[in-house]
Design brief:
heterodimer, A: about 260 residues, mainly alpha, globular, B: about 270 residues, Rossmann fold, 6-stranded mixed β-sheet, 4-stranded antiparallel β-sheet, 10 helices
Chain lengths: ~260, ~270
C-alpha cells in the first residue's frame, strides 16, 4: 500500500468522523427542538425514568456503599500518619460529592442504562419499528428519543446524589463503626468542610453535564446504528467506550473550571 | 380500472449515488382497487412504496396522492398526508414494548383526542375484524408470525386510511395464515373503501385477491394487467415468474467469469 493510499485512508476516516460529529450535533438539536411532547405527556418521560433511573438504583447504591467503605479504609490509613483521623468524615464526603459520586455514577449509568438505550433503539430500527412510527406520522425523535433523553438528564444527578449518600454511609460504617473514629468529629468535620454551593452544587452540575453527554451518545449511537445484529452490537460497544471517555474528559474540564486555585 | 385515481406515479426515476434503482415508473392506483406490484427481490418494489410514503424523493418525476405531490410537501403537510396512509411492514414491526392493545391503540392516542372508552371499543372492533379479539393483553413476543401480521394489520387500519400499503405481507407465513391474511387484505379494502397496494413476490396468493398487477424488473415496469391477463401472459419474464420456472430470462447462475476456466478444465 502506497503512502498516498495511507493518507487517503486517514483523510477518509477524519472526514467520516467530522460528518458523524455533525450528525450527532444535529441529532442533539432536533432532540431539544422536539422535546415538547416529553413535558406535555410527562408520563412518557416518567416511564423512561423508571427504566433508566430506578432500574439502575441497585447497582448505584451497592457500588456507592463499597466505594465509601474503601475511602473510609484508605482515608483512615493515610490520615492516621498525620494524626488527623478525625478529618475522615470531610475526606470521604468531599471525595464523593465533588468527584467520585458524579464520575462513578455516570460511568455505571453509561454501562447499565446507556448501553440498554442504544440496544433498544438499535433493535427498534432493525425491526422497522422506527420506520413504522415515521410512516404513522409520529415523529420518532419526539416520541422515542426525547423522553429517554430527559429521563437520563433527570436521573443522573439523582443517582449521583444517592451514590454519594451511600458512599458517606459506607465511610461511616468502616470509619466509625468498625475502626472506631469518634462519631461526633466524623460528622462535625464533614459538616464544616462541605460547602453547599462550592461542593454539592458543583457536583450536581457535573452530573447534569455527564447525564446530557451519556444520553446523547447512547441515543445517537442507537439511532445511527446499522440495522443488523452486528451493527447494534458495535453501537452498544461504542456507547460504553465513548461515554466513558467523554465523562473523564468532561470531568477534567469541569474540575479545572470549578475548583482551580482551591 | 375506471374509477378516479387516488394515487399516480409519473415518470419516477431514482438512484442511490449513481446506481439507478427506478427507471421511468408510471403507475395509476384508482380508488377502491387492490393492486399488486410484483417482481424479484431487489427489483425496486419497496423503493416505490418508500416514494409513496415520502421517505425517498425521486430524482425525476413525481408521486401525486389526493391531488398533492408528495415530495413537495413540508414536514407538517407530509405528516398530514401520512395520516391518510397505512403501511403493513414485512414482519409487522409491532412495538415490542407494548401489548397488542396498545399497539392497535397507538395511532388513535397519537392523532386523536378520543376518550379511552371509545379507543377501547375501536381497538376491540379492529381486533375482532382480524379474528384476534381476546389477544389484547398479549405481548408481541407471545404471538405467532401469522398472528403478529394480523395484529399489525389491525394497527395499520386503525384510523381507516384511504391508502393501505402492504410490504411482502405473505412472507414467512404457513399456508393457513397465508390464506387468512390474503382474505383479510381483500375484505378490509372493500369494507373500508380504501385503495390497497400489495408489494409481493407471492404470485399465487396475490393473483387470487388483486384487481390489477404491475410487474417490475430492474427498476422498470415490464408488464401489467388484470390477474387473468397476467396468468395468460406470453411475456417470457412474467411466464417464468408466474409459473416458477427455473429456466428463462432470469438466469440460474450468478453472472461471473468462466467456471470451467476457473477449475482448469476444458468445456
Amino acid at each position: 500500500m502506497s503512502i498516498l493510499d495511507n493518507l487517503r485512508g486517514i483523510g477518509a476516516r477524519v472526514v467520516n468522523a467530522v460528518w458523524r460529529i455533525g450528525y450527532a450535533s444535529r441529532f442533539f438539536l432536533m432532540t431539544l427542538l422536539y422535546s415538547g411532547m416529553s413535558f406535555r405527556r410527562f408520563r412518557l418521560t416518567v416511564r423512561e425514568i423508571f427504566f433508566s433511573g430506578v432500574m439502575s438504583l441497585i447497582i448505584i447504591l451497592v457500588a456507592g456503599m463499597f466505594v465509601g467503605m474503601v475511602l473510609g479504609l484508605q482515608g483512615y490509613e493515610t490520615l492516621k500518619r498525620y494524626g488527623s483521623e478525625s478529618a475522615l468524615g470531610s475526606l470521604v464526603a468531599l471525595s464523593l460529592v465533588r468527584e467520585l459520586g458524579p464520575v462513578l455514577a455516570a460511568l455505571l449509568f453509561a454501562s447499565r442504562a446507556g448501553s440498554a438505550m442504544t440496544a433498544e433503539i438499535g433493535l427498534m430500527k432493525a425491526t422497522e419499528q422506527i420506520a413504522a412510527m415515521e410512516l404513522m406520522a409520529v415523529n420518532p425523535i419526539a416520541r422515542v428519543v426525547a423522553p429517554r433523553f430527559w429521563a437520563g438528564v433527570i436521573s443522573m444527578p439523582l443517582l449521583a446524589a444517592m451514590f454519594s449518600a451511600m458512599g458517606v454511609f459506607g465511610g461511616y460504617v468502616v470509619g466509625v463503626v468498625l475502626i472506631g473514629v469518634d462519631e461526633g468529629s466524623f460528622w462535625s468535620q464533614m459538616q464544616g468542610a462541605v460547602d453547599f454551593q462550592h461542593d454539592v452544587l458543583n457536583g450536581v452540575i457535573k452530573s447534569l453535564v455527564f447525564g446530557v453527554a451519556v444520553t446523547v451518545i447512547s441515543l445517537f449511537e442507537g439511532y445511527d446504528s446499522p440495522p443488523t445484529a452486528e451493527g447494534v452490537s458495535g453501537a452498544t460497544t461504542r456507547t460504553v467506550v465513548q461515554s466513558s471517555l467523554a465523562i473523564l474528559m468532561l470531568d477534567f474540564i469541569l474540575t479545572a473550571f470549578m475548583f482551580r486555585g482551591d | 380500472m375506471s374509477s378516479p385515481a387516488l394515487l399516480e406515479i409519473r415518470d419516477v426515476n431514482f438512484a442511490y449515488d449513481s446506481r439507478p434503482i427506478l427507471k421511468g415508473i408510471n403507475m395509476t392506483f384508482p380508488k377502491g382497487k387492490l393492486i399488486a406490484i410484483m417482481g424479484l427481490s431487489g427489483c425496486g418494489k419497496t423503493t416505490i412504496l418508500r416514494h409513496i410514503g415520502g421517505v425517498l424523493k425521486p430524482t425525476r418525476g413525481y408521486v401525486k396522492m389526493d391531488g398533492q405531490i408528495i415530495h413537495e410537501l413540508d414536514q407538517d403537510n407530509l405528516y398530514q398526508m401520512r395520516r391518510k396512509m397505512g403501511m403493513l411492514f414485512q414482519f409487522g414491526a409491532l412495538f415490542t414494548d407494548m401489548t397488542v392493545y396498545d399497539n392497535v391503540a397507538f395511532q388513535m392516542r397519537e392523532h386523536t383526542d378520543l376518550p379511552e372508552e371509545i379507543i377501547r371499543d375501536l381497538v376491540m372492533m379492529k381486533l375482532h375484524a382480524v379474528g384476534l379479539y381476546g389477544t389484547q393483553n398479549l405481548m408481541p413476543a407471545e404471538l405467532s408470525g401469522g398472528m403478529a401480521r394480523r395484529v399489525a394489520l389491525a394497527r395499520t387500519v386503525a384510523l381507516d386510511p384511504m391508502l393501505i400499503m402492504y410490504d411482502e405481507p405473505f412472507a414467512g407465513l404457513d399456508p393457513i395464515s397465508l390464506t387468512v391474511v390474503g382474505e383479510l387484505i381483500r375484505r378490509l379494502n372493500d369494507a373500508l373503501g380504501a385503495t390497497s397496494i400489495v408489494v409481493t413476490h407471492d404470485v399465487q396468493e396475490s393473483l387470487k385477491i388483486v384487481d390489477y398487477v404491475y410487474f417490475v424488473s430492474d427498476g422498470a415496469i415490464i408488464a401489467e394487467g388484470t390477474a387473468d391477463e397476467i396468468r395468460a401472459s406470453g411475456e417470457a419474464f412474467v411466464k417464468q415468474f408466474v409459473h416458477g420456472e427455473m429456466d428463462g430470462p432470469i438466469p440460474f447462475h450468478y453472472p461471473a467469469g468462466d467456471y470451467n476456466k476457473d477449475l482448469g478444465v476444458r468445456a
